[in-house]
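Anyone opening a protein record will find just a pair of labelled lines. With that in mind, the following record should read easily:
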Amino acid sequence: MIDDAWAFKSALEQARAIAARQVKPSELVALYYERIGRIDPELNAYVLLTRELAESQAAASEKRVTRGEQLGLLDGVPVSIKETAALAGYRNSLGSRVFEKSIAQVDSFAIGRLKDEGAVILGKTNAPEFGTRPITEGPMFPPARNPVDVSRTAGGSSGGAAAAVAAGLCALSHGGDGGGSIRIPASCCGVVGLKPSRGRISSGPLLGEDWAGLATSGVIARTVADVALGLDAMSGHLPGDPYWAEIPEPFLRAAERKPATLRIGWTIDAPTPVEPEVAASVESVAAELARLGHRVKRVTPDLGGFRPLIQILAVTAVGALPITNPELLDPLNRRMLEVAPRSTAVDYLKALIELHQQARQLIATWDEIDVLLTPTLTYPAPRIGAIGQDVNTASDEFLDWLSFTHPFNCTGQPAISLPLATSNAGLPIGVQLVGRPRDEYSILSLGAQLEATLKPQARASRLQPR
């Protein structure tokens, strides 16, 4: 078997090594499955392994390399996909016991694109039911644990995806983000998480839009270049999509070039207190950006107005599902299913109109800046079971924690969480960059510059080879 260090090499390094015949996809697959079998019982990052599929995809990739054929962007690179995504021929549960016997007939668009680009799918990662919790704790699977500290949550709803990347159980993870569900676990686990622009990755062919356009597929990885590569692999749209964003150039190029001098606004202002260590981390990054020559100033955008609106959209999304046995649901989703009928079509439309009006007001902040710098979360990863246990207070607890993530699902702007700081307790602190609409390029270039300058250390060190 190849050296264990290969498990922590970037997806980009692996893709290039495969193309150069320095390593075989089958060797990487064997390495990752060995690590999954040894490490994952403690973490619960994966909830379904697709070994037969992975081995056939690895073999196909090796044939393409041998024949000198054109290779995909992720040809032979082992990846994971989120349980809530559709993978044709496999369980399509949405993380719920209600749908645990459902089998996907087609791939989600992002998953189909990963296949087209030669990625090797190791399995599906842990997620809470319907992705409605920002922690990966639900009735169907054991909680996803944080590789940095297994008493802590991996975050959610793409918690298994972030844990898998942080623990060296795949090269790159597909995730989904409707209120922060890529950036939250990336921040908790000390990895990079990118939520793309609305319409950058199609929600088809099963959905026209997801959570009124708030939710999108995205990427979790160990480096900024890798999330850019993953976005290149997954991006695109289908005819008839309600939203789409054109792609003027590959995203990886942006992660490989120095950014222009940018106008950067920073804020730590939220409707709830921000933990001092988190606030200090953002102030430190702001000072570093000024040292690098960017024009930095503090700004005070209003991030609090979306809270009641995203709640209505989440509740009605659950209410629209074909659920016939609600007794199987997570208590929070059961409550949402019960109250959903109280929202009329008129209520829903009013909420959507107000959301778009508020989005225009928030996006106007970018008339004076190019990038917004914020904390990703108001505090680092809590202990498993520490929040969201009481359905009467769960929503407020969650939205307080997510004060800086969910507004940008409402505006549809691209946002990236970077692992640039660590708490005194040794927990990762994520710092978020938010770009103007459809401008992933600026935050990728800036994120790569910060990554190179601040050189964040791997947080799951106890799982890395010595």
Summary: DSSP finds 15 helices and 13 strands in the chain.
